[in-house]
Backbone:
């Protein structure tokens, strides 16, 4: 009995020591958040706002840097070559994950070389058409069933292309994807009648004078667009869970103490009223999903997106994420 009690005491002491160590971790030098998108891109805007508001909750110096190219692979390569010490954070999105899949890159390196620690927001997908068109979702899909219909968007096999295919698969239609050099060019293609529609995010309509949302994939109506239907309104509630997540990852092997510290900081920032108001105005849903929940979301998206890419013959049949 005494031996058992001694073991119990040692376990409790070890637990207390670990908890104390985690709570007391503080950075000894600046932390750099690396964006793979250009300045002004969605994740860049989010990261710079995060940097601003984090100053309310920590004395740590946070630096934001951008290393662009190859859909995030260049930035990922850079991070993976650095020490896993907690001083370099990868600002990443589902678009990066889809680049890895569509380019048939090494998942063991480019996905599992990281620990996925915080998903901080969801930017819902939507279908966008010309402002002065008379399209409804029903008429758009019926037309797509009858003849070739061109939708414009960023790179073939990218996140918005995958979302468009997921929409159309559920609605029983097929489309031809016109790949453009980014979201703004895709919106111009719709305005100039090169394409009938686009799959984008709510903010892609700009000031709303030339484009409009046909439907927005979000369970809760967006305050900025209360009259725009979601898919549930139109009879397809299962499509209201499709969105572009953005979040943070670190190189695998990063100390658990840092991850706990960073997740606590993310919790504080994402609950800050200024953060919530800033992104609500952009029609972006803010939250903070940490390790297990984020990892489950990542795995589900990878499986679903790979199936879409294979069925569309955008990746080879033998490519695997296992």
Residues:
């Amino acid at each position: 009995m005494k031996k058992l009690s001694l073991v119990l005491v040692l376990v409790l002491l070890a637990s207390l020591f670990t908890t104390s160590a985690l709570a007391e971790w503080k950075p000894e030098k600046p932390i750099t958040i690396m964006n793979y998108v250009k300045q002004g891109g969605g994740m860049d805007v989010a990261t710079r706002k995060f940097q601003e508001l984090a100053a309310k909750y920590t004395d740590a110096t946070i630096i934001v840097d951008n290393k662009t190219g190859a859909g995030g692979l260049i930035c990922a390569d850079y991070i993976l070559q650095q020490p896993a010490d907690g001083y370099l954070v990868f600002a990443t999105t589902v678009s990066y994950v889809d680049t890895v899949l569509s380019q048939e890159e090494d998942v063991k390196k480019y996905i599992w070389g990281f620990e996925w620690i915080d998903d901080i927001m969801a930017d819902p997908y939507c279908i966008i058409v010309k402002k002065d068109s008379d399209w409804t979702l029903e008429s758009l899909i019926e037309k797509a069933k009858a003849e070739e219909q061109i939708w414009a968007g960023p790179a073939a096999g990218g996140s918005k292309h995958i979302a468009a295919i997921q929409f159309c698969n559920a609605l029983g239609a097929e489309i031809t994807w016109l790949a453009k050099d980014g979201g703004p060019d895709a919106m111009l293609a719709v305005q100039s009648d090169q394409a009938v529609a686009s799959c984008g995010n709510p903010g892609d309509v700009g000031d709303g004078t030339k484009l409009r949302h046909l439907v927005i994939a979000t369970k809760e109506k967006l305050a900025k667009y209360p009259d725009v239907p979601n898919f549930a309104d139109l009879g397809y509630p299962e499509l209201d869970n499709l969105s572009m997540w953005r979040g943070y990852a670190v190189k695998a092997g990063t100390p658990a103490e840092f991850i706990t510290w960073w997740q606590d900081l993310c919790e504080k920032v994402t609950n800050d009223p200024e953060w919530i108001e800033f992104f609500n105005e952009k029609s972006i849903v803010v939250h903070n999903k940490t390790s297990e929940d984020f990892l489950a979301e990542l795995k589900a998206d990878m499986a679903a997106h790979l199936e879409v890419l294979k069925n569309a013959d955008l990746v080879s049949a033998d490519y695997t994420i296992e």
Q: What stands out?
A: Residues 6-22 have pLDDT under 50 and may be disordered. The radius of gyration is 22 Å.
